[in-house]
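Methods — Computational structure assignment.
A single polypeptide chain was analysed. Its primary sequence is given first, followed by the predicted tertiary structure written as structure tokens.
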Amino acid sequence: MDAPVFNQHFPELYKYLKLISSTQIRNMATVAGNFVNASPIGDLTIFFLALDAQLILSNGTASRELPLRKFYKGYKMLDKNPEEYIEKIYFELPAVTDKFNFEKVCKRTHLDSASVNTALYLKMNGEQIVTAGISAGGVGPVPAYLSKSSAYLDGKNMAGININELLSIIQTEVTPISDARGTDTYKRLLLGQLIKAHFMELFPQHFSEKILTA
């Protein structure tokens, strides 16, 4: 939260991280621990899935590299041997022209686990999206990278994005269950609203509040 390089490349970082647990827990927890815990609603996991973070796994003598997007094999199942630990995490820092946003909804604004959370990263060239990364939590057994939805955005000009088409694709990639945090229907609706919030936050000149009722 206080790292100068992170604040430089993620101007809204403080706002994002204030939504994650409490000060005491943030001071004790680790990013790698959030990944390995494999919670389907892990906030930092969702944050870094969108950014295509890479992991270096080590068993103490040998190491291997694995994309975070391929780390989760099923509920609490990891592509990790028991003796391995995450030695390093790295990712490409967003350029000043790129766009990133993190959204989270929970029963309490602060201190609570998410009902649904999502992150969007767009590598931009002017008004054109070069590559996109969309992630979502609380909508399946693992932290989800939405590959089809991300591919839909790749190469598109902002004027060519149809939010309803995007939301339709997203709904085919998620499998939420009804639990204490909400019903399947509620979580699907909530994810759709948070995806719209990404675009309203990042591109207010193109996407107004009208899309919320579109």
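Note: The first helix runs from residue 4 to 9.
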